[in-house]
Write a structure and sequence with these properties.
two-stranded antiparallel sheet; alpha+beta; 2 helices; 31% helix; seven-stranded antiparallel β-sheet; PH-domain like
Length: 160
C-alpha cells in the first residue's frame, strides 16, 4: 500500500523536476540570445493587412533552432500592419515588433517550421535581418489566405 504512494510521489516529483529543467533551460537560452542579438524595433501603427497566427521565428542558418530572445519564440495571435517604416507585428500578450522594409530579404510560402506542419504553402515565411543575423518568421494566415498573402507580397515588393 505504501509503495504505491511512494511511487506516485516520486513520479509527480519527477514531472515537476523535468518542467523546472525545461523552464530554466529556455530562460538561459533566451538570455544568451539577447546578449548576441539587437533588440527589435518597436511596432508602429499603420494600415491593417490581416490577422494571423504568429507561429515561430527561427535562425536562417539554423532552421531547427527557435529564436527565444525578446519573446520571439512564443506562438500566438497577431495582427500585421504596414507603414512607411516596415511591417509591424502586434502580438497578443507578447512584445510587438517592427521589421523595417530594408531588413526584409524575401517572403516565401512553406508547409512547415520548427514544430508546426500545415497544408502545402500554409505558412507565410518572412526572411529578414535582425542586426547581422538572418531570421525566418512564420505566420499562419487564417482567413482569405491567398488574397492576404498576395497583399503582403505586394506591400513587401513595393517598399523593398
Amino acid at each position: 500500500m505504501l509503495t504505491r504512494e511512494v511511487i506516485g510521489s516520486v513520479l509527480v516529483s519527477l514531472v515537476f523536476a523535468v518542467a523546472a529543467f525545461i523552464y530554466f533551460r529556455v530562460k538561459r537560452r533566451r538570455l544568451l540570445q539577447e546578449q548576441s542579438l539587437p533588440e527589435p524595433f518597436a511596432a508602429k501603427a499603420g494600415r491593417q493587412l490581416f490577422s494571423c497566427l504568429y507561429v515561430a521565428s527561427v535562425f536562417g542558418s539554423r532552421p531547427l533552432e527557435r529564436v527565444w530572445a525578446y519573446g520571439l519564440g512564443i506562438r500566438g495571435k497577431a495582427d500585421i500592419q504596414t507603414s512607411n517604416e516596415g511591417l509591424s507585428i502586434f502580438r497578443q500578450g507578447e512584445r510587438d515588433l517592427l521589421i523595417p522594409f530594408s531588413s526584409i530579404i524575401s517572403l516565401d510560402r512553406s508547409s512547415a517550421t520548427i514544430d508546426r506542419g500545415v497544408e502545402r504553402d500554409g505558412l507565410a515565411q518572412l526572411r529578414w535581418m535582425l542586426g547581422s543575423t538572418e531570421i525566418i518568421t512564420s505566420f499562419r494566415i487564417t482567413q482569405n489566405q491567398e488574397a492576404n498573402f498576395s497583399n503582403l507580397q505586394h506591400v513587401v515588393e513595393e517598399f523593398k
